[in-house]
Design brief:
alpha+beta, two-stranded parallel ribbon, 7 helices, 8 strands
Length: 173
């Protein structure tokens, strides 16, 4: 992979197209390859078009993303723009809470500005949709109820999640 990029750079291109540039590379080599790709754009002004199924890697280095489903581009933009287009207007969080699941759901469901609470397959884990900006209220409500918080993370701007949302939309059409 590195040799192919080196061969390309010798030609001083303005645009480089790379297909699965990190396949078959060890983890440290992946970090180096992604840094090299990013530097092509940042330091050398090269436009880099990447094709990859490793979305978490692409999210870490790409300014803009195009999502293809069934061979056609269904969306294009920044990760935040794509997330906003598939979102419901609510902010989503994955919340891990120790304690009785019934009590946890009752507390979460009773908090102001909570739109929905969904138990996930992992034990002690829920997906909570709230009005934008109300994430801290979830934590405060759980702490006030004496429920130990295990983890709390925003979801929805992860490129894998965004892709699956677009894929589900296209399949449903």
């Amino acid at each position: 992979q590195r040799l192919g990029i080196a061969d390309t750079l010798v030609k001083d291109p303005r645009i480089v197209v790379l297909d699965e540039p990190t396949i078959g590379i060890d983890p440290e080599g992946v970090v180096e390859m992604l840094a090299l790709i990013r530097s092509l754009a940042d330091d050398h002004g090269v436009t880099v078009l990447l094709s990859s199924h490793l979305l978490y890697q692409m999210q870490s280095i790409c300014d803009r993303v195009g999502i293809f489903v069934g061979g056609k581009m269904v969306a294009e933009g920044t990760t935040a723009e794509l997330a906003a287009r598939v979102g419901s207007g609510a902010t989503l969080y994955e919340v891990g809470v120790a304690g009785d699941p019934g009590q946890v759901e009752q507390v979460l469901g009773g908090l102001p500005d909570v739109r929905s609470v969904t138990a996930l397959a992992r034990p002690h884990t829920w997906r909570v949709a709230v009005e934008p900006g109300q994430g801290p209220a979830i934590v405060a409500g759980l702490v006030a109820a004496g429920l130990p918080l295990l983890h709390f993370r925003p979801i929805g701007e992860d490129l894998d999640e965004i892709y699956h949302a677009y894929f589900a939309q296209e399949v449903a059409v």
